[in-house]
TrEMBL record:
The chain crosses the membrane at residues 41-64, 71-94, 106-128. The keyword NAD does not apply. It is found in: Membrane. GO terms for biological process: sterol metabolic process. It comes from the Eukaryota. This is EBP like. GO terms for molecular function: cholestenol delta-isomerase activity. Residues 1-127 form the EXPERA domain. Keywords: Membrane, Transmembrane, Transmembrane helix. The gene is EBPL.
């Protein structure tokens, strides 16, 4: 999303050249908000690049080094991703999806549903993983701390 934010802030994707611009132009066929500076989309993507990018780096470090705060960061990052997805599409749905190409099977099912669904599925699975790990840690902690009467 970094190149998208840059292209949006210095001009727009639709009038940009290069490989990255051509990828965003292709996605723009499914969701035209990605072609020009849509303030909601660009605002969310700035937050994604800065905050989620930093959290992703911290999470990688926490996983590799087996840090105690790994699941806190993982849950935070996943919630950020899910919230970002919601705020990307919910306002559009509320106004009747004028910027989404729902007539084309490819653009609707592949670009909009599948590609964006990955950004729901993966955070959802990682949230479930964190839930199970935190539950396991809690059960282990309470069994150690229990006193027999």
């Amino acid at each position: 999303e970094g190149p998208f934010v840059y292209l949006s802030l210095v001009g727009n994707v639709a009038n940009s050249d290069g490989l990255i611009a051509s990828l965003w132009k292709e996605y723009g066929k499914a969701d035209s908000r990605w072609l020009y500076l849509d303030p909601t989309i660009v605002s969310l993507e700035i937050l994604t690049v800065v905050l989620d990018g930093l959290l992703a780096l911290i999470l990688i470090y926490a996983i590799v080094k087996e840090k105690y705060y790994r699941h806190f960061i993982q849950v935070t990052l996943c919630v950020c991703e899910l919230y970002g997805g919601w705020m990307t599409f919910c306002p559009e749905w509320l106004i009747g999806s004028p910027n989404l190409n729902t007539d084309s099977w490819l653009y609707f099912w592949v670009y909009l549903v599948f590609f964006n669904g990955v950004w729901v599925l993966i955070p959802g699975l990682l949230l479930w993983q964190s839930w199970l790990e935190l539950k396991k840690m809690h059960q282990k902690g309470t069994s150690v701390g229990k006193k027999s009467w």
